[in-house]
Design brief:
- It is a single chain.
- The chain is mainly α.
- Helix content is 66%, strand content 0%.
- The chain contains 23 helices and no strands.
- The longest helix is centred in the middle third of the chain and has 26 residues.
Length: 452
C-alpha cells in the first residue's frame, strides 16, 4: 500500500491552465447531475436497482479520478460541487440498506426506557413500539450491536418522532459528511497534500454511503479526519479523545490508535503516549461507565453480528470453503500477525501507511465487509494514494448487485462473482503498489513510455 504520489506522471503539463480548469468545471457539473440521478434509481427500474447503482458508482469514480489527474490549481470548484452533491441527496430515500430503520428502532427502544442490548424487535413487550417503528425482518431476532455513544445519537434522532426522525437523521449525516469534506481539505493542506482533495470531495463511496445509505460510519470518518489534524498539531489529548468517541460509535476505526501511539513513542511511557492513550481510555471508559450505570448490557454485543453475517470478504469466503475451521483461524491469524509486524516496522517511517494497513487488517480477515466499512479509508487514501485501496473502494460496491433481486422480488441471494472480483483487484493492487514502491523511477519511465 505504498504511495502513488511520487509515481503519478505529470501528463497534464501540456494542457493549458484554462482548458484544464474548464474541464474540471464540466466534470463537476456531471458529478452533481449523477449525484441527483442516484436518488431516482429505484424509480427508474426497480428490478435493476443494484446494477444501475453500480454503473453510477463507476461513472462517479471515473470523474473523481479524472479530476484528480487534472489537478486543478484551485480546489474551490471541487469543494462547492461536493457540498452541492451532498445537499442534492438530502431528501433521497435510502435504498441500499435497511440500517436506517434499525437505527431509528434502537434509538426509540432506549428513548422508551428499554435496553436495546437485550430487547429484540420480536419481543412481545415492545410490540407497541414496532408498530410505530417498523424494522426489517432480518433484524427482528437480534438486539443492537452498536456501542453506547452511537445509541445515544440514535435516541436523540428518535426523539423527533417516527415521521420526522428519518429526516432528522438524514440532515445529521449530510451535515457530518459536508463537515468531513471541509475538514479533509484542511487536513490535506496541513500535510501538503491538497492536490489529492478530489479523492475525498468527489469520492462516490463518501457521497453514496452518507447520502443514500446514511450510515453511522460517516461520523467515524469525521473523527478520524479531526484526529489526524490534531495529531499533526501534536494535540495528543484531543486525538485520544476523538478516537475514544470513535470507538464508542463503531469499534473498528479506533484501531489506528496503535500506529499513532507507536509514532508518539509507544511502548515507551512518555508524556505523548500517556496523553494519547490515557485520553482514549478515559473517554471510552466514561461513556461505557455511563451506559453501565444506566443498566445497559453493553458488553459482548459484537459476537452475534460476526456469527450472523457473511458478506463481501474475499479471503474469508475462499478459505471457509476450502479449509477446516481450525486451519481458517490459523491462516487468518497468520495474515493478521504478518500485517501487524509491517505496522510495527513502518509506523515510524510512514504513519499514514501504517494507519491504512492497521485499519485493513480486521477488514481483510473479517467474515463480513460492507462497502460503507471502507469510508474511513477515504481521507487516508487522499493522504497517501494507494492503488490497492482505490481498487478496493471501487470494487466492493459490486456487491450491491444483490439489490436487483431483493428490490424486485424480495429475494436476498448475493452472487459469488463480486467477492471474487474484489479479491482479484486486491491482489492486483497490492502487487502494483509493491512494484511501484520498490522501483518508482523505472516504473514512472515505463508508464510514460506506454502513454506516449
Amino acid at each position: 500500500m505504498n504511495s502513488l504520489a511520487h509515481t503519478i506522471p505529470n501528463f497534464t503539463a501540456p494542457i493549458g491552465v484554462e482548458t484544464k480548469n474548464n474541464a474540471v468545471k464540466f466534470l463537476c457539473v456531471i458529478f452533481m447531475a449523477l449525484s441527483l440521478l442516484s436518488a431516482y434509481i429505484p424509480e427508474v427500474a426497480p428490478e435493476f436497482t443494484g446494477s444501475l447503482y453500480i454503473i453510477n458508482h463507476f461513472a462517479l469514480t471515473f470523474i473523481m479520478l479524472t479530476v484528480w489527474y487534472l489537478r486543478p490549481n484551485g480546489q474551490n470548484v471541487v469543494l462547492i460541487s461536493a457540498i452541492i452533491a451532498q445537499i442534492l441527496l438530502l431528501f433521497a430515500e435510502p435504498f441500499t440498506t435497511h440500517d436506517v430503520a434499525r437505527y431509528m428502532w434502537d434509538g426509540a427502544v432506549l428513548l422508551n426506557g428499554f435496553d436495546p442490548y437485550i430487547i429484540t424487535p420480536n419481543d412481545t413487550e415492545v410490540e407497541h413500539l414496532r408498530a410505530l417503528w417498523p424494522t426489517p425482518e432480518e433484524h427482528a431476532k437480534y438486539p443492537t450491536i452498536y456501542p453506547p455513544f452511537a445509541i445515544s445519537l440514535l435516541a436523540v434522532t428518535a426523539s423527533f418522532g417516527p415521521k420526522a426522525a428519518p429526516i432528522a437523521w438524514k440532515v445529521m449525516t449530510t451535515s457530518v459528511a459536508i463537515i468531513t469534506i471541509i475538514q479533509s481539505k484542511k487536513l490535506l493542506t496541513l500535510y501538503g497534500k491538497e492536490r489529492h482533495f478530489p479523492l475525498v470531495a468527489l469520492s462516490p463511496l463518501l457521497l453514496m454511503e452518507s447520502g443514500i445509505g446514511t450510515h453511522l460510519d460517516i461520523f467515524c470518518a469525521l473523527f478520524i479526519v479531526l484526529a489526524l489534524i490534531h495529531y499533526k498539531q501534536r494535540n495528543f489529548i484531543t486525538v485520544g479523545t476523538l478516537l475514544g468517541l470513535c470507538f464508542t460509535i463503531k469499534f473498528l476505526p479506533a484501531v489506528i490508535l496503535f500506529p499513532l501511539a507507536i509514532k508518539a513513542g509507544f511502548p515507551k511511557i512518555t508524556r505523548n503516549t500517556i496523553a494519547l492513550c490515557g485520553s482514549f481510555l478515559a473517554t471510552a471508559t466514561v461513556i461505557y461507565a455511563i451506559a453501565l450505570l444506566a443498566d445497559l448490557q453493553v458488553v459482548g454485543v459484537l459476537s452475534t453480528f460476526l456469527q450472523k453475517w457473511r458478506f463481501g470478504s474475499p479471503i474469508f469466503s475462499y478459505l471457509s470453503m476450502n479449509v477446516s475451521e481450525a486451519e481458517l483461524l490459523f491462516i487468518l491469524g497468520g495474515i493478521a500477525l504478518s500485517l501487524l509486524c509491517i505496522v510495527l516496522l513502518k509506523a515510524q517511517q510512514s504513519t499514514t501507511l501504517s494507519c491504512q494497513i492497521m485499519y485493513a487488517i480486521p477488514l481483510l480477515i473479517s467474515p463480513v465487509v460492507f462497502p460503507w466499512y471502507l469510508l474511513v479509508f477515504i481521507p487516508l487514501i487522499a493522504l497517501r494514494p494507494s492503488i490497492t485501496l482505490l481498487l478496493w473502494c471501487s470494487a466492493l460496491p459490486l456487491t450491491y448487485e444483490v439489490l436487483d433481486q431483493y428490490n424486485a422480488a424480495g429475494v436476498w441471494a448475493f452472487a459469488a462473482w463480486p467477492v471474487t472480483v474484489t479479491g482479484v483487484v486486491l491482489l492486483i493492487g497490492i502487487t502494483l503498489d509493491i512494484t511501484l514502491g520498490i522501483t518508482p523511477d523505472s516504473t514512472l519511465k515505463h508508464l510514460k513510455r506506454l502513454m506516449t
